[in-house]
Write a structure and sequence with these properties.
This protein has about 450 residues and is of the alpha/beta class. It has a domain at about 175-345 and about 415-455: Periplasmic binding protein-like II (D-Maltodextrin-Binding Protein, domain 2, 3-Layer(aba) Sandwich), CATH 3.40.190. The protein is built from 21 helices and 11 strands. It has helices at about 1-20, 25-35, 40-50, 70-85, 100-105, 120-130, 140-145, 150-155, 180-185, 195-205, 225-245, 255-270, 280-285, 285-290, 310-315, 355-365, 370-375, 395-405, 415, 420-435, 440-455; strands spanning about 60-65, 90-95, 115, 155-160, 160, 165-170, 175, 305, 325-330, 340-350, 410. Strands 1, 2, 3, 6, 10 and 11 form a 6-stranded mixed sheet that branches. A 3-stranded antiparallel sheet has the order 8-7-9. Helix 1 runs antiparallel to helix 2, helix 2 (about 25-35) packs across helix 3 (about 40-50) and helix 11 runs antiparallel to helix 12 (about 255-270). The longest helix is centred in the middle third of the chain and has 24 residues, at about 225-245. The radius of gyration is 24 Å and the shape is globular. It starts with a helix and ends with a helix.
């Protein structure tokens, strides 16, 4: 009897696997094989219902994303591997106005199969509305938990249900520079914020522009400034205060928030720090700004943004050698108590249609196999622990991934964690502040009013 049960269980496990992940069985065949394995018709029907039904079979899926340039190229490299593996084509639409386009498509009952979430708040709203496909009914959660730290699983989940896959992330504690040009101009790697200001002043007094900065990003303009401020804040005030800010347990008029923004202002409004500032900051695209330290001669000497910046640099300057011609130094320490606390980015992909294409795509995207494709191309760090550091294309990328792995506290940028209406207001408020720092108190008071409305709804 035990032997019979063991064989029956093995047969049923195989049957369920074929039905829910390989999609090779029809409902009728499933029932026939389940009864042949020893189940009654009612028990086989109950098992079929528990499997969630067979998904619709498709030959192509569409994906909506904000990625462009080298990031989009890398995503498409993953898509090509997926198509080769499954025969299912991935049609990608890329837009910087993703939130507006997505919500229009949802209202028109025409959602994409797969979409990259522009913020967590929208993901939570769509999940509450039943618009997202729960992934834990077909993804191997034991393997998922082995590959991802709990903090990342929590990020991709809502109300204890997994909705997201994290195809990549990034260390945002990175300041980019050209080692040769930086040293030739008399620069030394700053260890503290005061060191950073001193080196900036040294360059500026010599008639050089120490910083490149651009915050233009279509309807998302302002987010690079928000990343600056998040990194400053967690470095100075630590993760607990950071969480209080995100959760609106302190007001936007709080002294710590104003202080972090004004520290950012030391760079944005620094005397002879940025060529053409502040107008140039507002008008320059964030990716274009990243090129300035790497031109010959350099237009600037330092540029702050996450480690995905490496992809911008290597795409624009194909002959530059990592570590010699481009590198980063870690964001300088502000408070020694929080020296290993950093901010990070994480891309979150969700499924909005339940078919064999979206299921197989999400399963594939979660794997080290898929993410290694992007890692080898450069411009991202994987959050999947099964991706080997040796697969990163150069020592610069490996060092960034190592910092992300070893950080004592990791947080997404504040702009990625707050409600969507507040996110938009925050980014716009920073544009106002960059243009006129005297408006800061007014900006913060307005943001507090928006926050009160956003957190009540």
């Amino acid at each position: 009897m035990p032997t019979f049960h063991r064989h029956t269980r093995q047969a049923l496990d195989t049957l369920v696997e074929e039905y829910t992940t390989q999609y090779t069985l029809s409902r009728r065949t499933f029932l026939q094989q389940a009864t042949a394995a020893g189940l009654s018709v009612s028990a086989a029907s109950a098992l079929l219902a528990a499997c969630g039904g067979s998904p619709t079979k498709v030959t192509a899926i569409d994906a909506l994303t904000e990625w462009g340039g080298s990031e989009l190229d890398s995503f498409n490299a993953i898509n090509a591997a997926f198509t080769q593996k499954t025969g299912i084509k991935v049609n990608v639409e890329s837009t910087r106005d993703l939130s507006a386009i997505l919500q229009t498509r949802v209202r028109g009952n025409n959602p994409p199969d797969i979409v990259g979430m522009p913020n967590l708040d929208l993901m939570h709203q769509l999940a509450d509305q039943g618009k997202l496909v729960p992934l834990d009914k077909f993804i191997d959660m034991n393997k998922y938990k082995q590959d991802y730290a709990q903090t990342w699983i929590d990020l991709a989940s809502w109300k204890r249900t997994l909705y997201g896959v994290l195809p990549g992330g990034g260390n945002k504690a990175t300041v980019w520079y050209n080692p040769k040009q930086f040293q030739a101009a008399g620069g030394t790697i700053p260890q503290t914020w005061d060191d950073l200001i001193a080196i900036s002043d040294k360059f500026a007094s010599a008639g050089k522009y120490p910083w490149a900065m651009g915050v233009e990003s279509s309807s998302s303009s302002g987010w690079p400034a928000a990343d600056w401020i998040s990194e400053i804040y967690i470095n100075k005030y630590g993760p607990d205060m950071y969480n209080q800010w995100v959760q609106h347990k302190i007001p936007w008029t709080h002294a710590s928030i104003k202080d972090a923004i004004q520290m950012f202002g030391q760079i944005a409004h620094g005397k002879h720090y940025i060529n053409g500032a502040p107008q140039s900051i507002l008008a320059t695209n964030f990716q274009d700004a990243s090129y300035q330290p790497f031109t010959s001669p350099p237009q600037a000497y330092m540029y702050y943004l996450g480690d995905f910046t490496a992809g911008f640099i290597t795409s624009q300057f194909k002959t530059l050698k990592a570590g010699t011609d481009f590198n980063f130094f870690p964001f300088p320490m502000i408070n020694a108590q929080y020296k290993d606390a950093i901010t990070a980015s994480a891309s979150i992909m969700v499924a909005m249609k339940d078919n064999n294409g979206s299921r197989q795509f999400m399963q594939f995207l979660a794997t080290a196999e898929a993410q290694t494709i992007w890692v080898k191309r450069g411009g991202t760090s994987s959050l999947n622990k099964s991706v080997n550091l040796t697969d990163y294309p150069n020592p610069v990328a490996r060092q960034s991934a190592r910092i992300l792995t070893n950080a004592t506290a990791v947080q997404l940028s504040v702009g990625d964690l707050i409600p969507a209406s507040l996110q938009s207001a925050y980014w716009k408020g920073l544009l106002t502040y960059i243009g006129d720092p005297k408006q800061l108190d007014s900006v913060l008071s307005s943001l507090e009013i928006t926050a009160q409305q956003a957190y009540q709804s």
